[in-house]
Design a protein that fits this description.
heterodimer, A: mainly alpha, D-Maltodextrin-Binding Protein, domain 2, 4-stranded mixed beta sheet, 13 helices, 4 strands, 63% helix, elongated, B: alpha/beta, Rossmann fold, 4-stranded antiparallel beta sheet, 11 helices, globular
């Protein structure tokens, strides 16, 4: 292996990334916009909003104080009331799951409609029934407070968004770019030089990992200045996990980049891999309560292990030893992907 | 003298399609060898197999008398028919990057001067004109001081002026003693640049030799062209065979003097006549019954 050739191609790839202003800017802007957007929408909290339709009402906007419905139901959290002129219009919305619950205003006995197939409707129904129980009839239960600092939704979400950005950047920045280079003949031109396939893919991987870590530091610092994330564990440990994660994702990108000249086909494959990975790796929501096979399936993705480890460090003050299983899995995945990518790599087909 | 490159019975098949069918040739050091033929004749496939871009189906290739090794890529220069380069890099940066790939390299200043790159050296490599691009790609092919240079359709798409400049440049490179193998479908290019030409059609070499020898062998005689209004109607008893081609009358002859004498005897005005010598286009036409660019 020649370090001179490796350095030359590494430098060329980095120049390309930094000079492509639009792609460069988007790499930083995209995660920042996502985090900012979620912070604005949820105000730093996570909750599920239940929509309750009430009729008759002259307008969609209703004044909760003036509504003739049980007082305790009005006072419940996470409910949003929407007005309808008549039952027919409310039922139409209920049928299409635009609202979760429909209630006729007026005195007892109250009339309500709910879809049997709607889980949210069921929850609102239980809330409504509970609001009708007089205070003296409430079951005897004592509320206990959670000890320590509560984890804000934005703190939970942020590593997911960063990891998701890394995933897209690694898969597309390596997989798609190399296939494009193969299609337009750049790889063919490089093939007839002494540059070896190993030197080329190593340079691609190093370049992408450097860019991923560079982006991570910039985006983290920028977002942290605004949202003040709470990291219970060590920043160095967190960096190690993100580094290992970016290594495995880049190696996966190299597998995708190893063959093919069709950008359309590669786009399909990239989507086929990245979308399930995004949804099943707990970027946006927890898989707690999901069927066992879904949880098991999610473990084939490096993103799952990177996020599990990152969140443990961030929220539970875990150290590298605590996240040892994730480190081992990420390392093995990286090794497997690199071996496969190198074995399959072709300059021109 | 040992050939610098020798190709023996080269075959390249793509499933049922035979792109190259038993091609053999040998190149003495310092010659410019041209593969001439229409599009689809198998020129590019032949050259790419020899360049080690694609594997052959059968046949042998020897470089300096031995099978090609990893040092082959250090010692040859290649310019593809169409190629893309690393994006967002200037011409200078691209040259420097390619320079880093090789052990032996040409000085950048020398290449800039030879290929006239100075005026666009700091421009991005995809923001230059067609003529500039071909000169730049030629400089890239020369970056490792190659002994053997492959040029695949080097002047395709260039305007006549840019093409003529490129030919002069290739002649300069040839004068330095480098061996050149080029493909082209321009007979003027082959005639102007090549010491030896192999005419290819349907994956085979159908004729090979120097341009002059090929013309002498496959296209004897000259053509006298007379505007039709100078000879119409064709005089009765005119002794030479004539044929109408658009607005001209063409007479093929081995003896131009005798032909002109006959024309004068029949009172034909000679001031607008043209005497055309045969060329490689004529050779191809005579060999295949088709024009090179049909």
């Amino acid at each position: 292996m020649s370090f001179k050739r490796l350095w030359a191609i590494l430098k060329a790839r980095n120049l390309e990334f930094f000079r492509d202003r639009s792609a460069f800017g988007w790499n930083f802007l995209f995660p920042f916009l996502l985090v900012a957007g979620f912070a604005i929408i949820f105000g730093g909290k996570t909750y599920t909003e239940y929509k309750v339709g009430v009729f008759p009402s002259a307008s969609e906007q209703v004044s909760i104080e003036r509504l003739n419905i049980p007082q305790r139901f009005k006072e419940m959290n996470y409910l949003k009331f929407l007005g309808f002129p008549d039952a027919a219009q409310g039922l139409e919305k209920l049928k299409h799951h635009r609202i979760d619950f429909l209630l006729q205003t007026g005195n007892e006995p109250h009339q309500y409609w709910v879809s049997d197939s709607s889980p949210k409707g069921y929850v609102v129904e239980q809330m409504f029934k509970a609001s009708l129980i007089p205070p003296e009839g409430e079951p005897n239960a004592e509320k206990k407070e959670i000890q320590g600092l509560a984890i804000r939704y934005i703190d939970w979400l942020f590593p997911g968004i960063l990891a998701m950005n890394m995933m897209f950047s690694a898969l597309w920045g390596v997989g798609y770019v190399v296939v494009r280079y193969r299609k337009n003949g750049v790889l063919k031109r490089l093939k007839v030089t002494p540059l070896t396939a190993f030197e080329y893919i190593t340079a691609q991987a190093i370049s992408r990992i450097f860019l991923l870590m560079f982006t991570l530091v910039i985006v983290w610092t920028g977002c942290d200045l605004i949202f003040s994330f709470r990291v219970q564990g060590s920043y160095i440990d967190l960096f190690v996990i993100f580094f290992l994660g970016s290594l495995s994702l880049t190696a996966l990108g190299l597998v995708l980049a190893s063959r093919g000249t069709s950008e359309e086909f590669t786009t399909g494959i990239l989507n086929f891999i990245s979308w399930p990975m995004m949804f099943l790796s707990e970027v946006w929501f927890s898989l707690e309560g999901a069927p066992g096979w879904v949880k098991s399936f999610a473990k084939i993705f490096p993103l799952t292990h990177m996020l599990t480890a990152a969140r443990k460090i961030m929220h539970d003050a875990a150290g590298l030893i605590d996240v040892g299983p994730q480190i081992m899995i990420l390392s093995l995945m990286t090794l497997a992907f690199l071996t496969l990518g190198a074995a399959l790599f072709s300059w021109n087909k | 003298m040992q050939p610098i490159l020798e190709v023996k019975n080269l075959v390249k098949k793509y499933k049922q399609v035979v792109a190259v069918d038993g091609v053999s040739f040998a190149l003495a050091p310092g010659v410019c060898f041209g593969l001439l033929g229409p599009n689809g004749a198998g020129k590019t496939t032949t050259i790419e197999v020899v360049e080690d871009v694609i594997p052959p189906t059968a046949g042998e290739i020897f470089y300096k008398g031995a099978a090609r090794t990893s040092s082959f890529r250090e010692e040859v220069g290649i310019q593809f028919q169409s190629t893309a380069l690393l994006n967002f890099m200037t011409v200078r940066e691209t040259l420097e990057t390619f320079q880093s790939f090789f052990n032996t390299t040409a000085a950048l200043d020398e290449l800039v001067k030879l290929c006239q790159l100075a005026e666009f050296l700091n421009q991005y490599n995809d923001r230059i004109s067609g003529g500039q691009r071909q000169r730049f790609l030629l400089a890239l092919a020369l970056i490792n001081r190659p002994e053997l240079l492959f040029l695949d359709e080097p002047s395709t798409g260039l305007d006549p002026q840019a093409r003529r400049n490129l030919w002069d440049l290739i002649r300069k490179i040839k004068a330095e003693g480098k061996t050149i193998i080029l493909t082209t479908h321009y007979m003027e290019e082959a005639q102007y640049l090549c010491d030896e030409v192999a005419i290819m059609d349907y994956g085979r070499i159908i004729a090979q030799g120097s341009p002059d020898a090929l013309i002498r062998r496959y296209s004897r005689g000259k053509t006298v062209v007379i505007p039709v209004d100078r000879l119409a109607p064709i005089p009765e008893g005119f002794p030479l065979p004539v044929r109408m081609v658009k607005d001209n009358v063409e007479i093929k002859t081995d003896d131009v003097n005798q032909c002109l004498e006959q024309l004068i005897n029949h009172g034909v005005e000679l001031s607008d006549i043209t005497v055309r010598s045969p060329n490689l286009e004529t050779v191809f036409l005579n060999l295949t019954g088709r024009k090179l660019r049909e």
